[in-house]
Specification:
Largest sheet of chain A: 6 strands, mixed
Largest interface: A-B, 113 and 113 residues
Number of strands of chain A: 24
CATH topology of the largest domain in chain A: Double-stranded beta-helix
Distance between the termini of chain A: 49 Å
CATH superfamily of the largest domain in chain A: Clavaminate synthase-like
Strand content of chain A: 25-35%
Oligomer: homodimer
CATH class of the largest domain in chain A: Alpha Beta
Radius of gyration of chain A: 27 Å
Chain lengths: 466, 466
């Protein structure tokens, strides 16, 4: 391992590999929207043939040695050079803000402790050294900071490094699917494996994040089993319908799901700002007669199709706010929930982020100018037609002991009407887990099982259903 | 009460009061952002002198009589005329979609039951009648629909009616405040009143929604009392730190709040997409020595000031995404939470919607192009300076039995360091309730106590502190 000590206080001459200070301002603001950030949308056909597993970047980095470090004339920028000929620039203010010494950073809490009430953004280093693969700085207030080369390289402001980091940490490439793809993308997991194997748990979560749906089988036939699954992920998301809700025919209910009638395609709780992320339905008793089939459609797939084939319809669906409403009572708790958002919500790249759709929860109040009403109904009808188009929608009758798990802000679900008999009362239990919690678990498990939190999609082909 | 029956199948001649079909497309898309929708920002100085209580619109409407109803030549639009000379237009497709008959609408569930799989958006009425203050339609498939005049008027597509409805249902006018206003806007409520009086509960919730802060006093000194308050609103919002978290010095903790050190100004859980809405801190034991004071700043007030005085700084703060991160363990639960959003998030009107700020949870990864780094640090320093500016920030030492309640996506809070003694261990309990749940409760209580869900701010002056 080579180490080179340099101390440069003169004007720096930057090499051609130094990134441009005028780098284009390519911000992706999906994170500013009301949903999980960083989704990348891909169609299932695009990921079926991929190359071999890429060599992890960490291994490559171990070969790299810090060869020099220089500051620019006013001390506001530090440039490091490596044995591979790369140069990386770091603003002094960022370096001081991220000093890793025990006074400035608490490693136990993984928290910055620099007090910003007294922080001087004009602070400059007086001494800049490259020593034993560390950048060492002495600041003009006497404070000293050391930075490991690998730590710096992982935080490089070059476009490639930033893109790689984003891919690793917001890795939710979502792959859309139609009916023809359904058998390929639907995986079934064993209940006990979910509970006992971290690898299975991770694979299951990644599949829900990617395709929006997965099944669990061999679930014990008790009402409290979803809680065990949710606890493996993190914890249940409570809503106005409780932590677990019983889906069976309940006379006098204030919710259409609690009847035996046909249940039109919908997302759950569109009338919340914080819509539940992952929806789980555990089948305890299925109807022995006809009906009771579940239906699901990937709204992302439908949205992409409309965007491609009927851009005007897509535009109307993404720009017309709709009132979603739920007024009622549940176990003595009265609610009047209301939220205003379009049927399709785009991220700021114009890509599908979320769907809200429910005839039963769409308010009769429609607070838009009159001239937008008929165009919206036309667009809504076109969207609905695609939702029920056999090319896009699938029906299946959930079996007892199965749990249907799906992305509630992406997939629409419905149910065919059925008829209970005295000896056969259809009975499902429902519960939710939020994406914040599921993504956290994915990152923790990736780190634990793979040593990094890179997406499985960057190296593996699409999973086949079992 | 006069009733006039008309049957008009010829071309309609619309009066001058008919709203323009070319109404301007004034959409406010705050609802598409990652926060509660429909906020309107006002400064406290703007609402101190208001007029008397306005006459409720419902009373006025009782005087109005339906005098005629006509359809246009192709049957796509119905116009009704009232005894006050007003005319209101309703698209036929909207009327059919919102038929209130038992086949199309379930009043128990307050849900549309029209099956959209078979819905014909080109359906037209063949007969249009105004009878006994009802619009009566016969459709070309033979279906019949009746609509009460008041029901129709409440759903008019005219700009005034839509604005009034929005004001009533998304009524969260938020009033910003600085230090000089603090004593005027801070109200203190009695714990038992919150628990036993719906009027107090509503007043308290409206004050938190409006000013972002309120105190509760006389709370019993047990760790489970926040749950009683949360249950009055709806239910607790669970996070990775549990449903209730203990804020006291805990050696080896992974969270800076659980130390006795100085706690810089911050919002809680910026690393969640779904950030907790209302933050409650119950003081069980306060330190008897120096320190331990809480500090709060209204980030909306600071944001408005920066927008006015330093628009470039404001722009950078709203456009530069920042990584917020929390990696750790809590009661055996491992998490790796991560979210990317600017320090100030605007709604699509360019007004303040939400703040995310935390030195301790801001990641050292800063995934923006190099040329954005220094401008962001400059903006962040300007924001921080205003947060600690004595004109904007207030300190107060929470007393035992008090609960500090504040809007976690609007107010920043901090704490001065303190020192525990063997006989005096500072001890607070924290818990959250989401805005979805709080707003639902506000609507339910307004309806119950006032018969409507209009904002108290439209008719009453600013509350004085007690």
């Amino acid at each position: 391992m080579q180490s080179v000590r340099t101390l440069v206080l003169a004007t720096a001459k930057f090499g051609s590999k130094v990134q441009s200070l005028k780098a284009s301002r390519q911000l992706r603001f999906s994170s500013t929207f009301s949903s999980t950030s960083g989704f990348r949308a891909v169609h299932s056909s695009e990921v079926k043939h991929q190359g071999p597993v890429a060599k992890p970047k960490d291994e490559e980095k171990q070969q790299v040695v810090l060869v020099n470090a220089i500051r620019d004339i006013d001390g506001s920028m530090i440039t490091i050079g490596t044995s591979t000929g790369e140069q990386h620039q770091y603003p002094s203010v960022w370096l001081r803000d991220n000093c890793q010494c025990p006074k400035c950073f608490n490693t136990t809490m993984q928290s910055r402790t620099v007090d910003w009430k007294y922080f001087d953004i004009n602070i400059k280093p007086t001494h800049v050294m490259a020593e034993e693969n560390q950048l060492k700085l002495v600041w003009n207030d006497g404070h000293e900071s050391d930075y490991d080369l690998n730590w710096l390289l992982e935080r490089s402001f070059t476009e490639n490094v930033r893109k790689e980091w984003m891919k690793q940490h917001y890795p939710m490439t979502r792959i859309s699917w139609g009916t023809v793809d359904f058998n390929k993308i639907l995986k079934k997991y064993d209940f006990n494996d979910i509970l006992n194997s971290d690898a299975t748990l991770l694979d299951w979560l990644e599949n829900i994040a990617t395709y929006g749906i997965a099944l669990i089988d061999n679930t014990p036939p008790q009402e409290d089993q979803l809680r065990r699954v949710a606890d493996r992920v993190g914890f249940i998301r409570r809503t106005q319908y409780g932590e677990e809700y019983m889906v069976k025919h309940q006379p006098g209910t204030s919710n259409l799901a609690y009847t035996s009638g046909n249940l039109q395609m919908h997302t759950d709780l569109p009338y919340y700002d914080y819509k539940p992320g992952i929806n789980m339905l555990h089948c305890l008793v299925q109807t022995e007669g006809t009906g009771g089939e579940n239906q699901v459609t990937d709204a992302m797939h439908v949205a992409e199709k409309l965007k491609r084939e009927k851009p005007e319809v897509y535009k109307v669906l993404t720009e017309t706010p709709v009132e979603w409403c739920d007024i009622g009572q549940e176990s003595g708790y009265s609610f009047h929930s209301l939220y205003r958002t379009p049927v399709i919500l785009n991220d700021s790249n114009g890509d599908f982020l979320r769907a809200d759709y429910s005839q039963q929860q769409r308010d009769s109040h429609f607070s838009v100018p009159l001239d937008q009403v008929i165009p919206w109904y036309e667009a809504h009808a076109a969207f609905t037609e695609e939702l029920y188009n056999p090319e896009n929608t699938v029906y299946f009758k959930l079996k007892e002991r199965e749990i249907l798990v799906f992305d509630n802000i992406r997939l629409l679900h419905g149910r065919k009407g059925y008829e209970d008999k005295p000896s056969n009362t259809r009975h499902l239990v429902g519960s939710y887990v939020d994406w914040d919690v599921a993504y956290s678990r994915i990152r923790v498990l990736r780190k634990k099982l793979r040593g990094h939190i890179r997406s499985h999609l960057s190296s593996t082909p699409v999973q086949k259903c079992t």
